[in-house]
Amino acid sequence: MSSSPIVLQPTLTLPEPIIAADTPDFRDKFNHSPFMFSHNLVGHPLFEIPRLVELANTLFPKGQIFSFGSGNSPGLKWGQIPNRKPIVEVLSHIGESDSCVMFKSAHIDPEYKALLDKTLIELEDITSVPLHREMTWSIATIIVSSPHVITPYHIDHDCNFLFQIHGEKDVHLFDQNDRSVLTEEEIERFYLGHISSANYREENQNKASVNHLVPGKGIHHPVLAPHWVRNKDSYSVSLSINFCLRTCDLQARIYQVNHYLRQLGMLPTPPGKSALRDKTKIIAVEMFSKRKPENHDEVVRSGIKRITAPVKLLQQVVRSLKR
Ligand SMILES: [Fe+2]
């Protein structure tokens, strides 16, 4: 688990509280359905552009920051969007660079780590969920993007609390349980590592809730809820507090086994329909999962990768012999 004991930096002043717990939705809807909330991070120095440039310089050597151009459609795949470099140049002119800069693992910097830790403490309290016991990974990501940028349609394994700090955007969110929107096969492929496996279908757009975020507002969306985002007329700064939950990690193991059962021509039982089948699949993958994962991918996929590695190696050998 990435969350070490909570130690706040004495030099940094964070809002008290960060999240305005003014809705029962935190308790009633957590990880089941989306809800909006209010927060107090607007105007905080951690989100001003010069401080973000400093953070970019910290993250760049560690490979924890990415920049890419704007997609013009929610249906684009990540691989279809061009990279943008150099990042600091893009960031300094974010108002007109038609780009998005994603600060993955902003919490490598101790001040952002303090922010992550305090937010998680507050969330544990207001959701009444023992998050620090249930979490297997946590991360603070900052997304800075130009006016009108579209973040394409996708799904995430993480539970997400998105805080809007500058600019406005529309978050289009779909029901993670609606199989006419998100199919079992798409989820199974996602958990094998195909991060763009969820396909945007224009005919489903009317099933989305469109959530307008302004500075001071945020939105929570559950694990696997498909979403895409469009910025409005100003550049946007958002903070995403993400974390993996143990129960969702175990569900991922079921989808991974189901992917291979489907490849064998079977019709696998989705999670939640048979306790015995779920347990068998979980045990099979769990035996091979890393006890102390060192990154997000290892939390989700180390077990299935270890199981399938010999088969993949064999396939490579066969391919090379055919040449
Ligand atoms: Fe996302």
Tell me about this structure:
This protein has 323 residues and is an alpha+beta fold. The chain folds into 2 domains: 19-246, Cupin (Jelly Rolls, Sandwich); 247-322, no CATH class. Helix content is 34%, strand content 22%. It has 9 helices and 12 strands. It has helices spanning 25-29, 49-59, 87-92, 110-127, 131-134, 184-191, 246-263, 275-286, 296-322, and strands at 19-20, 35-39, 65-69, 99-103, 135-145, 150-154, 159-166, 169-173, 209-213, 217-221, 227-231, 236-245. The strands form 2 sheets. An 8-stranded antiparallel beta sheet has the order 1-2-10-7-12-5-4-3. It has a 4-stranded antiparallel beta sheet with strand order 6-11-8-9, with no helix packed on it. Helix 7 packs parallel to helix 9. Mean pLDDT is 92; it is low at 1-5. Fe (ii) ion is lined by residues 154, 156, 227. The site of fe (ii) ion has 3 residues, from loops.
